[in-house]
Write a structure and sequence with these properties.
54% of the residues lie in helices and 0% in strands. It has 299 residues and is mainly α.
């Protein structure tokens, strides 16, 4: 099993890369990986998703650590093709053994020009990861197009497992994201907000506004209020992440141009998969959001 490409090895300092590969080996079951064992990664455009031969990693925490290490390698000058295998294997492992949704994992930050084909390659791989997550967690999503319906579990149908080839074919279609997400898959907000790539334009705009909305709006304001609340009452420290996740889940799921009521259970579900924690009861969610809203109004 090889995780990094030979091209990257040839351009870097031996000591730095030896340390990096040692760290990756410490996190996985794949021991004694030598540079002579590393083969060039699949050139762009890729012909398949690289995690068909998924092998369980050492512990459920390891993939998250690997994602962080891969960003360090990119800072050293690695290309996406150099780390692609490791990136995809880590995400598939997390899909199988973690409850943290793809949207809330360590983000891979490419150091490449905006027109670099690596961005398309990364986006295609992320779509496969997204589809695998939805299937792995038992979401029944009715797809009307017969060509693609086996991507998701269908109510009443037997589960034949995830079809990586079909998912890769889906990711390689020359479609707009809106058509892919809304027309073909029909993903609701509660699904989209869990994913890295399969988000509508509305959901992308929500993430941007919430995470980068400025000091008086978005997550920045919420974190400031929670910080002040903790100073007033140190016992709040252990609950800060719960409150932040519940607020973020509610904002991501708010109906757009609709008067329909947002189910509390959906807020609880999304907040739980942000952190990989147990889902809170509807009563607890209501109480916490009421308390937080009161604080926000006074801020």
């Amino acid at each position: 099993m090889s995780y990094l490409s030979d091209d990257f090895r040839n351009d870097q300092d031996d000591a730095v890369l030896d340390e990096a590969i040692d760290e990756l080996n410490q996190l996985t079951e794949f021991r004694h990986l030598q540079w002579s064992d590393i083969t060039p990664s699949i050139p762009a455009p890729a012909t398949e998703f690289p995690a068909h031969d998924w092998v369980e990693l050492k512990s459920w925490e390891s993939p998250q650590k690997i994602l962080g290490k891969l960003n360090n390698l990119l800072l050293l000058g690695a290309k996406y093709a150099d780390v692609r295998d490791a990136y995809c294997h880590a995400h598939i492992d997390l899909n199988k053994r973690s409850n943290v949704a793809p949207a809330f994992r360590t983000e891979l930050r490419l150091k490449a020009p905006k027109d670099d084909p690596a961005y398309l390659a990364l986006h295609q791989d992320q779509m496969v990861v997204d589809l695998h997550w939805l299937r792995e967690k038992g979401n029944c999503i009715r797809i009307h197009d017969k060509e693609w319906r086996n991507l998701m579990l269908q109510e009443g149908d037997p589960d034949f497992g995830f079809d990586f080839d079909l998912a890769w074919s889906f990711a390689c279609q020359n479609w707009s994201t809106e058509f892919r997400v809304k027309t073909v898959l029909g993903l609701k907000e509660v699904h989209q907000c869990q994913l890295m790539a399969l988000r509508s334009n509305d959901m992308k705009a929500r993430f941007k506004a919430i995470m980068y909305g400025g000091a008086r709006s978005g997550i920045t304001k919420v974190r400031q209020v929670l910080s002040e609340w903790t100073e007033d009452d140190p016992r709040m420290e252990r609950y800060v992440e719960d409150y932040e996740a519940l607020w973020l889940a509610r904002e991501l799921l708010k109906p757009i141009k609709s008067s329909r009521k947002l189910p509390i259970r959906n807020i609880a579900k999304v907040a739980a998969i942000m952190r990989g924690s147990e889902q809170l009861t509807d009563k607890t969610v209501r109480e916490k959001l009421t308390k937080l809203d009161s604080r926000l109004l006074r801020a």
